[in-house]
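Explain this record to help learners:
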Amino acid sequence: MRFIGEYHKTFFRSRESREKRVIKKFLKRLGPGFTTGASDDDPSGILTYLQGGAMLGFGALWTALATLPMMYGIQEMSGRIGLVTEKGLIRIIKERYPKYVLFIIAFISTVVITINIGADLLAVGVAVQGLISVSMFLLVPLIAAVIILGVLFFSYRKFARVLIWLTLALFFYVLAVLYINIDWFAALESTLIPNMVLSKNSILILAAIFGTTISPYLFFWQANQEVEEKMEKISANGGKVQPRGKIIVTKNELKNLKEDTFTGMFLSNAVMWFIIAGSAELAKAHGVQGFVTFVEASSVLKPLLGGFAYLAFSAGIIGTGLLAIPVLAGNIGYMFAEIFNLPEGMNKKFHEAKGFYAAIISAVAFGMLINFFRIDPVTLLIYTAVFYTFITPPIIYIILKIANNRAIMKNSVNSKTSNIIGWITFAVSLILLLAYCITLFK
């Protein structure tokens, strides 16, 4: 009996240690692709998906499935470009394209990203205000200050770890939907079989969903983070950082990149599906046809979802905002540093990359100032998503050209499958842009 007892203890201890090893191995392999996918579900995305579910019902659910391969395809290309070249996309565009192309992309991206930062800050502020009674004039600057200090004083490794833990906030939306118990059969049917009437509003929502799901800032971010991650690993292993292009990319690294990116994109779109489904169920049950303001969205959701679910909704907004805003601002830092050949990277301290961090601080500060114009975040966030649709087609086109250029990518150019997915994504982004522009004149 004693032997059996000891055996059981040993068995369960070894099983527990195996499970811990598997979890640790999984978490260790999570990288830029995972955090990029998670940061895609920022307050801009969340409110766009909420609006899509409220206005189109389950008819918007198919977009979560349809955008997954497109999102993965472009993000994998962006990450592979960064991994192989050890350069961000802006640096490559600067080296390979005319200056006017570089400055148009950088200028429009900076403006839209700054607006996105401002809208996300306001959304986080409103969510916090729904939990504690504090003036927005105090809350927004305080949130901005916390984010800036976090970026300045965290090393890249700590920063990446914090980003991974903040992704847990996304699961609050899954819990909220399980709480209200949707019509699962109808939701699954609408996911697999698109059923939506085209109209001016539905095209606007489709453009916004596409723009916030397949966003240019995510392309830039993942390429740069793959570079950061690689330099960090080399440094941690005691190796010297070699000149750009001299480090060989292994098949295992490319395999890890694909797995990491797919994990991040799948998580992002799964959460997107749950948000749309929950919003659609509430809209159908309570006659909600859309949210005009964020305060209205909060006031409607609070009694419908109950205390716990509303707390989950608010926690999700706060967590994803704190996850996404540094990512958004970091993109502007990388753009500025790469255009003007300045030291860059979150693995550097402030005195080592002053221009890079100054651009990040400026982006958050300008985003904060937008909040004092008293523009409601729902309107601002949805139109920010639409603005991304305008700049997405040319950036996807450039990524496809770079990813197929052997002079740049060597043996890691696109496969036929990657090209098919990439060109379909480009075509869809262009069609949505043209359709949206046509609706403006109707």
In short: The mean pLDDT is 81. The CA atoms of residues 125 and 246 lie 46 Å apart. The two ends are 83 Å apart (CA to CA). Residues 31-440 form a domain with the Amino acid/polyamine transporter I fold (CATH 1.20.1740.10).
